[in-house]
Amino acid sequence: MRKSIATVSLSGSLSEKLGAVAAAGFDGVEIFENDLLASPLGPEDIRKRAADLGLRIDLYQPFRDFEAVPEDVLENNLRRAEQKFSVMERLGADTMLVCSSVSPDSIDEDELAADQLRLLAQRAEAHGIRLAYEALAWGRHVSTYDHAWRIVELADHAALGTCLDSFHILSRGSDPRGIERIPGEKIFFLQLADAPRVAMDVLQWSRHYRCFPGQGGFDVAGLVHAALRAGYTGPLSLEVFNDVFRQADASRTAVDAMRSLLTLEESVGLASPPGRVVPSSFAFAELAAADTEPLRALLGALGFVRTGRHGGKPVELWEQGEARLVVNTAGASRREGPALTALGLETPDPGAATRRAESLLTPVIPRRRAAGDVPLEAVEAPDGTELFFCRTRREDHPSWTDDFAPVLPLEDTAGPEPGTVVTRIDHVALTQPWHRFDEASLFYPSVLGLQPNESLDLADPYGLFRSRAVANPEGTLRIALNVAPVPGERETHPQHIALATDDIVTTARRVRDHGGGLLPIPGNYYDDLRARHGLADDTLATLRELGILYDRDEYGEFHHCYTVTLGRVFFELVQRTGGYRGYGAPNATVRLAAQHTAELGLRPG
Amino acid sequence: MRKSIATVSLSGSLSEKLGAVAAAGFDGVEIFENDLLASPLGPEDIRKRAADLGLRIDLYQPFRDFEAVPEDVLENNLRRAEQKFSVMERLGADTMLVCSSVSPDSIDEDELAADQLRLLAQRAEAHGIRLAYEALAWGRHVSTYDHAWRIVELADHAALGTCLDSFHILSRGSDPRGIERIPGEKIFFLQLADAPRVAMDVLQWSRHYRCFPGQGGFDVAGLVHAALRAGYTGPLSLEVFNDVFRQADASRTAVDAMRSLLTLEESVGLASPPGRVVPSSFAFAELAAADTEPLRALLGALGFVRTGRHGGKPVELWEQGEARLVVNTAGASRREGPALTALGLETPDPGAATRRAESLLTPVIPRRRAAGDVPLEAVEAPDGTELFFCRTRREDHPSWTDDFAPVLPLEDTAGPEPGTVVTRIDHVALTQPWHRFDEASLFYPSVLGLQPNESLDLADPYGLFRSRAVANPEGTLRIALNVAPVPGERETHPQHIALATDDIVTTARRVRDHGGGLLPIPGNYYDDLRARHGLADDTLATLRELGILYDRDEYGEFHHCYTVTLGRVFFELVQRTGGYRGYGAPNATVRLAAQHTAELGLRPG
């Protein structure tokens, strides 16, 4: 189907918006009146600009507070409308959105509303214009889509139809199945927006928190389904007001918007992009560091062994069990110390995974490879992390590990106990830039087929983090996305890699004894742990000694501890018992404060 | 009364918070449990730290999900409580906050709740501890203060009283007058918080949007009155969770908090700080500029005439009617161009105004004066703007203008028409740093006695502004406070000075003809204006020619236009007719977009 977007959804000037919308592959736009008013370009210029960009002007919006008014007000409203019609003719727009009135002037009488809308439709028709009447969720007398439709039916004019907006319908909890009873040709327009499920005043909710379908909690696909069954054939159009998008780069937002519509089309069976290829585990995590010495010492203490060196680049492979870390000193020097720059995702079909990502407008990373290197498929996540689709040491596919020549272990990691205390990467936590969080919330499910968890708030001494995990259905690949709810310094909060172990006490002791530096946890935490969970004294003493945190849920137990931070990255050791599903969120405040204390060089009491 | 604050209200580590609280003059603190758990200091260390700072630990909080549970859960809950009692003994805290349960384990039976709370009170008493039972607004069975009080009454134990929290009470719309029926000695604690009046889920509202009394929309003073009439003698304690305060500097927040409590004490008659001295008009606005040439040209075009030069500093006085501008080239060089740095406020008693400000912890600005200079009283507003309290050319007080020696007008402003087309400063608009907006919302009413208007949202092409005006009762002194709802570049949006005129067309022509540079407004705006307000064609043509914007309200009409921006400041010309009260908010989007267009050097069509 044709895809469209309202200019109000993007930041910038009107001409900037049109360019971004065209570049992302949209077919049309809704012109938001304020964007036109604020533009230095006249309506004819905008018409030409849109035509040059291959964009149809699908809708001019909104016309407010028209219907069900006393005679004298009606006259004034018709005069207002005539001026809009004239602008629309200059603009080349043939459909106008008419919102249900919020005015105290309006009268609660459907017959009157229908009569006046019929009159307006007659006037519109004379200009070759159609009217799409929409119920605002906060309309004074008309606030539900079925009510708006009853009035349209009553007015019974060819130039008058209805506009459905998923936000207005779903925010009120209306049942969208009733849409199927509306004749498809009378649905003149379909506006789509999602929103997080929060209980708040619907006007505030609409103005500040709308998001693209798939980024919130509404069943937008179900609503589109109903409209399709009704016979709707017009464009799928996004209309989103959102404090983040207002500040974000328009071209980036337009791509995010298009990814949302493509995913939505797939979910309602309107399109068949290459299918999702869900990754099964982490093939590796890549750390970039200009100076690798502190990192090597920490990896050694964690039990990792250097097993390979890349043939043509200053890149090393470190392994332990199924946990693999790539240490890269190429690229720009990083003053900030080590950082997590890429993830290898173990996947059944790397080529298919890339085709899926590309079809959803994910930037594919061009690889300049030396002759003989294994071809690597990689795309860029919203936060800039590179995602490599891999098959590691399988017979059916070249393995990225083949680029690494075996090396002798470094002396200091070739101790008497090379043992695999760490078994695999349990999860990684990626700090998201503030204005990429919604985009990431859609990206991981739609591109990679990961399932999102609920969002959580975590407090640190200087602010909050919002955290949302995505995982494959088996829980063998998990990524925690963290973001500060407002922009600020915490956008550069370190990333971390959580390593699974079957024996956290032994592992933590090993790290400590090899000088790896565990994060000290305040004694007060353990006094409280006794009260909360009734742990035995000797157990508590061990946890306290090693700075191990504890949590449990209905499925099992969770023990975890942290290394100190190196540059922009730290490690967590985790032991899950009995199917525990979380990430130790109740301990986050204590951990974050402890990291702050460690940063200041203070010692816990 | 004693004044206290919960540590959760401030950012940073627990020891950092205690220092800030003591420095702001508080008598005590509530220790928030998570702050203790996350602290590297043990309870005894914190006890000592607080004692050294002269702070009493008034409350330990919160103890959750205790009451009205089955026997087996009760046992566990009592074990939890014993551990808290032991921490409190080490901490030297004698009162524990017990929140009404939100647990699905709890049973809706007041008798059971009372029995178990009595049991807990017996245990507490053995440690010399009292319990303050509080109804959370989202408590499972107990969510109102009168219900909590009924249970306390039923339990009937000397060590059990109630805690009242203004947020929990007022957010539910409960009538606080019922508090007067509670015996004062059974109100063990009073927690105070305000909040903006928004319709949203009460838990989200509480966690993210609380603010200090006087910064929101609740009648906190009325509630304190009721508690005082009941005979409450404990501390007034602030407990505020707020996303801004979580990031703000603790010592700054603590001062803001204390100012709120001092103002609250005054409003309920508990204290009599020096009275408010409400300013009557702007004595002057001060512009700092390293290079004054572009500014001089603009002032000349606006009809200002240079009338004086300061005796000892590179400072000039420019006047027109009652509008006075001070142009200062002293101080640091300003790459950004001219900026608004100070305001002179015409006030009946400058000394008393300063004493008022000082009593509310406003920084007083020390003046290094040359011998013979007129003494000036000045304080610093939350955004750093200097506020001078003045009496201009009155017989009863030295006038700041006496520091300026008369000069001949500059040649280029001494044209044939020195006329006073501008009569006075109508208002100034100050862009607030994101984390100072709440502080400013309280500062102007409490320190200067200005009355706040409602907050408005204004959209520009790259985000939103929130705008709130404060004004004296006569409307002869108005300040618009603008802030971006999230931090970002728009914190450095220019300030502006609005100049009143009785004939905006003549004034705007004069500016234009003298090369002053008016902000061009898009033609689309005027096409729309015709439709909205039905203005006559020749009127519209004049407005269009000069870029004059138009608005009206129930009281009258408003015409306004803007100069181009110089550095960080621009001027507005305004003409109010018939008592119009606003600031042209409906035109803000067009104006902001036009400023952006002008910045890019584009020309409107």
Could you explain how this protein is built, in words?
Two copies of one chain form a homodimer. Chain A is 32% helix and 25% strand. In chain A, strand 22 and strand 23 form a beta hairpin. The mean pLDDT of chain A is 91. The termini of chain A are far apart. By secondary structure, chain A is of the alpha/beta class. Chain A has 17 helices and 24 strands. Chain A has three domains: 265 residues, Divalent-metal-dependent TIM barrel enzymes (TIM Barrel), CATH 3.20.20.150; 133 residues, 2,3-Dihydroxybiphenyl 1,2-Dioxygenase, domain 1 (Roll), CATH 3.10.180.10; 178 residues, 2,3-Dihydroxybiphenyl 1,2-Dioxygenase, domain 1 (Roll). In chain A, strands 1-2-3-4-5-6-7-8 form an eight-stranded parallel β-barrel, surrounded by seven helices. Chains A and B meet through helix 2, helix 4, helix 15 and helix 17 of A and helix 2, helix 4, helix 15 and helix 17 of B.
